[in-house]
Specification:
This protein has about 250 residues and is an alpha/beta fold. It has 2 domains: about 160 residues, Undecaprenyl pyrophosphate synthetase; about 40 residues, no CATH class. Helices cover about 40% and strands about 15% of the residues. The strands form 2 sheets. Strands 6-7-5-4-8-9 form a 6-stranded parallel beta sheet, sandwiched between helices. It has a 3-stranded antiparallel beta sheet with strand order 1-2-3, with no helix packed on it. A hairpin with a 2-residue loop joins strand 1 and strand 2. Helix 2 runs parallel beside helix 3 and helix 3 packs parallel to helix 5. It is globular and about 60 Å long. It starts with a strand and ends in an 11-residue tail after the last helix. The structure holds farnesyl diphosphate.
Amino acid sequence: MLVRGKMRLAETGVNVVPVPEHIAIIMDGNGRWAKSRGLPRFAGHKRGAEVVRDMVKGCQELGINYLTLYAFSSENWKRPASEVADLMGLFRLYLTRELNELHRNNVRVRFIGAREGLPGDIATLIEQTEEKTRRNSGLNLVMAINYGSQNEIIQAVKAVAKDVEKGRLTASEITEHCFAAYLETADIPDPDLVVRTSGEQRLSNFLLWQAAYAELAFVDVHWPDFTRECLEGVIRDYQSRERRYGSSSK
Ligand code: FPP
């Protein structure tokens, strides 16, 4: 029986609230984690990559369908060249070492973000990873690399303008639904829950359009310390909220 959108197990009285279909995470705090241990920033990113592996496994086990990870923003190029190189090295390693395991586990891996500007071998790895896992039907892992939401929206606006110019679309046909199809996330459902670790409370150019109705969770834990228990904690908190999409409360 359905009680306010929650399914109730008749005999037990236990409410079973669905897990979010799509969780998007801003993985913040690698640098501070490393600094607090007297380690170089790279150590934080390295540990952060290990947490990525745990989270993919955790999301699979919890029945989450989509996990989007903000791995490198279009603004991250402003970091020292050595740190950028370290991060690119980690992506290279992750995509090489984890690919078979991800594929074996039926994970479909996709990428959002500008491919131009990335080192050529990483762009190739991205294409190979997407191609190899294209038919997988398990967890959808979306990696945001060289991603910036404002740029994504500008590119979508340009594509819409072009279609109007060519007579393929009229101005009156442009709706939220139609516009979303021009974004890189066209066939990905909007995130239900956006998590940011490390205590900062901002979106930093991440999924600005897509997160319009997402629940937000700001967690006071640096990403390298984000555990399976932390993941379950944010999901439980999400499940206790009432999503209203602009309507009045029940
Ligand atoms: C933010 O922490 C984190 C990043 C900019 C990089 C995220 C990358 C990883 C978690 C590792 C690699 C990921 C994959 C997918 C293999 P920060 O450096 O801004 O931390 P700070 O705010 O404490 O300085």
